[in-house]
Amino acid sequence: MNIAVVTPGGDAPGVNAAIRAVVRSAASQGFEVFGVERGYMGLIENAFRKLSPRDVSGIINLGGSVLKSSRCELFKTPEGLEKAAENLKAMNVDWLVAIGGDGSLKGAKEVSEVSGIPVAVMAASIDNDIAGVDETIGFDTAVNTAVEAIDKIRDTAVTFERVFIVEVMGRQRGFLAIDVALASGAEIALIPEHPVTHEDVSQRLLKMGSLGKKSSIIVKAEGAMGDPFETASRLSRLTGYDFRVTVLGHIQRGGVPSARSRTLACLFGNHAVRLISEGKKNRLVGLRDNRVVDISILDSYTSVKKIDENKYRLVSLLAV
Amino acid sequence: MNIAVVTPGGDAPGVNAAIRAVVRSAASQGFEVFGVERGYMGLIENAFRKLSPRDVSGIINLGGSVLKSSRCELFKTPEGLEKAAENLKAMNVDWLVAIGGDGSLKGAKEVSEVSGIPVAVMAASIDNDIAGVDETIGFDTAVNTAVEAIDKIRDTAVTFERVFIVEVMGRQRGFLAIDVALASGAEIALIPEHPVTHEDVSQRLLKMGSLGKKSSIIVKAEGAMGDPFETASRLSRLTGYDFRVTVLGHIQRGGVPSARSRTLACLFGNHAVRLISEGKKNRLVGLRDNRVVDISILDSYTSVKKIDENKYRLVSLLAV
Amino acid sequence: MNIAVVTPGGDAPGVNAAIRAVVRSAASQGFEVFGVERGYMGLIENAFRKLSPRDVSGIINLGGSVLKSSRCELFKTPEGLEKAAENLKAMNVDWLVAIGGDGSLKGAKEVSEVSGIPVAVMAASIDNDIAGVDETIGFDTAVNTAVEAIDKIRDTAVTFERVFIVEVMGRQRGFLAIDVALASGAEIALIPEHPVTHEDVSQRLLKMGSLGKKSSIIVKAEGAMGDPFETASRLSRLTGYDFRVTVLGHIQRGGVPSARSRTLACLFGNHAVRLISEGKKNRLVGLRDNRVVDISILDSYTSVKKIDENKYRLVSLLAV
Amino acid sequence: MNIAVVTPGGDAPGVNAAIRAVVRSAASQGFEVFGVERGYMGLIENAFRKLSPRDVSGIINLGGSVLKSSRCELFKTPEGLEKAAENLKAMNVDWLVAIGGDGSLKGAKEVSEVSGIPVAVMAASIDNDIAGVDETIGFDTAVNTAVEAIDKIRDTAVTFERVFIVEVMGRQRGFLAIDVALASGAEIALIPEHPVTHEDVSQRLLKMGSLGKKSSIIVKAEGAMGDPFETASRLSRLTGYDFRVTVLGHIQRGGVPSARSRTLACLFGNHAVRLISEGKKNRLVGLRDNRVVDISILDSYTSVKKIDENKYRLVSLLAV
C-alpha cells in the first residue's frame, strides 16, 4: 500500500508531529509513505519523496511543515486537478492523506473525485473552524501563543492604565478569539458572530471604569468591527481612555507546538492510518467529545460549526 | 448566600484562575465569597478573608494559590473536622467550594458530613487521576512543563548519543507519564499500571539501537520500576549504553498556567457556582467528553480511573 | 535618610526587580524608602507610599511596574516641576531615585535643579539608547521577546517560502533591531542610522534568492524606511516575492524579565543606594565594559550613543 | 585555506549558532570548512564532512550540536592525539576551530602541539568558568533555564510555605549558582568557593523566618555542601522547616539558546575566522569587558577565574 501525505495547511503547529505519526503508523502496517512537497502544488509538480521512519526523526517539536506548503491557485482548476490525479496514479499512490483545514478538505475532496484515489484528512488549523470536530491540531498552540503575548501586554496596560485592543486571527470566525479572551482574562471579546456597536463597547468600558478597572484588554478577531486602529480611535473618542493596538499576526501560526497539539497530531495520524487499513474512505479525522473520531468529509464540508455561546458569555461575566 | 472557597490542592497551575472564576461568578449571582487560607488548616484555624471581584484581579496567570495551602493531618481527625464545622457555621457559610484532587475530595466529603454544609469540588490536579472526569485543572500545564524540559534534554541526549531516564510525577498512576511520553516523542513510557522488567526495557533499547536510534528518552512515572538511578545503572549494564537521569520534581507543580488550564478553571468555577444556585449538593466538577459536568463525589471517590491503553501503546508504536 | 523611588519608564521588564533592589539595599543601610505612584505624575499628585523590604516580596519576576507609570505632560512645565519639588520637600525626601530611560533622565535632572534634591537614575529602557552606558535594564528581555517571536514567524516563512518584514520598536535608534536581527538570524536589518533604498533591499533579496534562499526575515526598526506595509508592497513589486508584515508592538515592553534584566536591576539598584551612602549626586547608573558604573547625568544627556557597526555588518555577513 | 570545526563541548546552547557563524564567516573569506563529528572522537575516527553556508541554515536556534559530541578518553592518550594529527593533515586542514570549555581548550592545545596545526577556541560552556573571559556561549541560556525553573518552584514554595533546595550545575565552581540565585531572588546561594556549615545556613533561615519569610529558595551548586537530600534533611532537623529538593540536572545543558547566547556565538565565530585571516595562532575567543577579545590559550589554561564577590554578597543582602 502506498500512501502520499501532503500538508496544504502547513501553518498549524503540530503538522510535523502529524507527518511523523502517519509515517510511523504506516510503517508499523508495512505501508510505504511518500511526502508531497509544497502542498497541493507538489501534486501538480510531481514533487514526491519517500519518507522512512528515520526521516521524520526529531520533527515532533518543530513548527511549520518539513514538507513545506503553498497557496496553489492552479489546483483549483480542472487542469490542475487532472494533472495532480495523473501524477498520483503514476506514483501508484493508493491513498492520499492531507493535513490541514477547510481549504485542504476541499482540495482533498476534489482530487479524490477526479482521481478516484481515496483520501483521509487530518483536521489541522489554528482557526478551529472545521464543522463536525471540536478541536484541530494547532489550535491549542495558537491560543497559548496569543495568551502569552497578552500576558506581556497586560504588564504595560496595567502599568500605564491603558486599554489595549489585541487583534488575533479569525477573518470569519471567533473560535480563537473567544478562547484567547477567556484564558487571558480579557475584558471583552469581539467576534464576527456577535456584531456590536462602538457605543456598546464604550458603554462596557465606562462601566468597568466606574467599578475601578483602570486598564482593559479587548481581544478582537480580525473579522470583527473592521480595522483595529480605526476602532481604537473611535472608542478613545467615546470613552476618553488611552488606547493602544497590537496585531498579533503570524506569530500565531508558528512556534513549537504545545503538548496538546502534538498529542492530537499523534492520535489523528495513527487514526488516519487505521482508516486506510480498514478501507474507510474519504473521512475527516478530528477530536469530538474528547475522542478521536472520523466523519464524512462531505458532511463537514457542507456544515457550519457553531461557537460556544457559554464561553463567549463567560468572558464578560468573569471580567467584572 | 455565603460561600467559602478553599484550595487544599494548591499545587496545580490554574488554581488561582479557579478562585477568580468562583469569586466573580458568585458576585454575578449576588453571593458573598470568603477565602480560606492554607487549605483545610484554615478551616480549623478560622482563617477566612472576604474576597471581592477586585481582590482576584491579576491572578489568572499566577501559579500556586493566593490562598496558600498545606498538608493538614489534624483535619483527618474527628476533632479537626469538628472544629472546621464549627468555624464554618460561625461564619454562616452556606456552601464550601474546594479546589483540588483526591485529598481535597475526601476532605470535602468528610467536612460536609460532619457539618451538614454542602460542598462543590473543582477537579484540580497535575496527576489527572480523579475517577469520573477526563481532565483536571493543572494537568495540561504539567504536561507542557515536562515536555518542554524533555525538549531541552533531548538536545543533549542526541548530541552525546545517550539514553535519558526522565522521571515525572506519579507515584500511583501513569496519566502524566503517558501524555508526556507521547507529546515529547519519548521512546518508552514506564508507568505503575504496566510493570515491565529491566530485561524488557533493555531488549527494546537494543532493538531501537539496531534500527539506528542512537539516543532515547525513557519517561518514567515515580511509581514505576523503583529508583531511577538504580534503574539506569541496571539498564546500562544490560545494554552497554550511556545513561543519564533527570528527576523533574516540583517544577511540574508550579508555573504560569497554560491557556487550557486557565480555561478549564474558568469553566469549572462558573459551573460550581451554578450548582450552588441550583442547590445541587456534593458534586465534583470536571471535564468529561469535552463537556463540563458534575458527578457525585461519592461515585468519584469510590472508583478508579483507567489509563488510556491506546495512548500507552502509541508511545512505542511512534518511537520506531 | 529618606529616599523616594519613581518609575517614569515603567515599560522595561526588570523595573520591579530594580525597585526591590533599591528598597532592600536601602534597608540594609537603615534608609527609608517611599514609592512614588504613576511616574512623575505621582510627584505632582503627592502619591507616595512607604515601601518596606516585605512590600517588594515576590516582584522580582513581574513585568511592568508595581508603582505604575504614566506619560506626564504637566511635569514638563515649570508649575509641574515646582509642585513636585514642593511635595518632595514636604515628605522630607533626601534623595530621588528614578528608574527609566531618556525621558526619566531629563525629568530627574529638572526636578533636581528645581528642588535641590539630589537624584540617582538607573538606566532602564528596551531601546538601550542611553549615551554613556552599554546596556540598560529591560533591553535583554525585549531582544529575547522579539527573537522568540521571529523564531515562530520563521516557521511559517520557511514553510511557505515567504519574505517577512518584522517591525520592532525603535523610532529613532536601531539598537534593538540590530541585536534582534543578529540573534534571530535575520537576513536584513533596517535601522534609522543607515538609510537604504527599496532598490538596495530588493537587490539583496534577489541575490539571496539566486543563492537558494527561498525565505527571508527583514527586521525593521520603526524609524527605518517608513510604513512597513507600504515597504512590503514596494519590495514585493520589485522582487516578485510574497511578503508578509508583522508589527511586534507592545509585547516587547512587557513580560517576565530575563535573568539578565533582573541581574542588572539588582546590581544597578544596589549601586544607586551606594551613591546615596557616599553622597555622590546626580549620577546615572548603568553597565559599561561589563561593570556597573555611574556617570554624570548631564554628560549622558548631552551625548548621543553610537550603534555597533560591527554587529550591523555581521547581520548581512552571516545571512548568506 | 581549510578549516576544521569541532564541538567537543556540545552541551552549551549556542554551539550551533557558533558553527553557523564560523562557516559563513569563513565563506565570506573564501575558506572551506569541514565539520568534525562527535567531538575529538571524530578527529581520531576521521569523521569529517564539508559544511557550506546552506548546510548551516536553520540551526541558529537549535540546542545541542548538529556535529554531535562525545567524551573521548582515547584523545587524552599520545596514540589518540597522534592519530588525530594524522587525519587532520591527510585532510589538508590548515586550522582547527574548537567550540567548548576547559576540556576543549586542553584538547585543542594538545592536538595543536602534536600536529603543528594552529587552533582557535571559542569559549562555550554553561559553567562560565574559563579564566580570562567574562562570559561564554551558553551561560546566559543556562542561567535563564534555571531561573525559569525556580520561578515555577517558588509558586509551590510560597503556597505551601516550604524551603526548597534547588541544585544547579557546578561541581567545582559557583558562577552559575550565583547568577541564578541573584536573578531568581533566591534567599541563599551555596557555592564551592565559600564553604558554610549547616549551622550557618539554619541560622540564616531562622533569622529570615523571624522576619516573616515563610518560604525560601536555596540555590546550591553541585559541588557545595554535598548531597542535597542529606543537606535538606539536616537543615530540616536544625530549623523545623519543611524542605524539598529539586536537582535541575541536564535541562540546564540544552534548550533553545537565548538571544544573548546566539549573539555571542555570532560574534565569537566571526572573530575566530578573523584570527585565521590574520594568522593569529592558538587563541581563545571570549567576551571581556563587554568586548570580544582573544587571549592566549596557555594563559587561560594556567589561570583560575575568580567569582564576583559583590554578586555573591548581594544575594543575601537582597533577600531580607
What does this structure look like?
The structure is a homotetramer of 320-residue chains. Chain A is α/β, with parallel strands linked by helices. Chain A has two domains: 2-138 and 257-301, Rossmann fold, CATH 3.40.50.450; 142-253, Rossmann fold. Chain A is built from eleven helices and eleven strands. The first copy, chain A, has helices at 15-28, 40-44, 78-90, 102-115, 139-160, 175-184, 198-210, 228-239, 259-278, 297-301, 309-317, and strands at residues 2-6, 32-36, 48-50, 95-100, 119-123, 163-168, 188-190, 216-221, 243-247, 283-288, 291-296. In chain A, the strands form two sheets. Chain A has a seven-stranded mixed β-sheet with strand order 3-2-1-4-5-10-11, sandwiched between helices. The radius of gyration of chain A is 21 Å and the shape is elongated. The model of chain A has no long low-confidence stretch (mean pLDDT 97). At the B-D interface, α5 and β9 of B face α5 and β9 of D.
Give a quick set of tags describing it:
homotetramer; 320 residues; alpha/beta; Rossmann fold; 7-stranded mixed sheet; 4-stranded parallel sheet; 43% helix; elongated
Short description:
Four copies of one chain form a homotetramer. Chain A is 43% helix and 18% strand.
Q: Count the helices of chain A. How many?
A: 11
End-to-end separation of chain A: 58 Å
CATH class of the largest domain in chain A: Alpha Beta
Biggest sheet of chain A, open or closed, and with what strands and sense? 7 strands, mixed
Query: What is the total number of structural domains of chain A?
Result: 2
**CATH architecture descriptor name of the largest domain in chain A:** 3-Layer(aba) Sandwich
Strand order of the largest sheet of chain A: 3-2-1-4-5-10-11
Order of helices and strands of chain A: EHEHEHEHEHEHEHEHEHEEHH
Mean pLDDT across all amino acids of chain A: 97
Low-pLDDT residue intervals, each spanning 5 or more residues of chain A: none
Please give the most extensive interface between any two protein chains, plus how many residues each contributes. Answer: A-B, 49 and 49 residues
User: Helical amount among residues of chain A, as a percent range?
Assistant: 40-55%
Query: Structural class of the helices, strands and pairings of chain A?
Result: alpha/beta
Q: Strand percentage of chain A, roughly?
A: 15-25%
- Remind me, CATH topology of the largest domain in chain A? Rossmann fold
Cα radius of gyration of chain A in angstroms:
21 Å
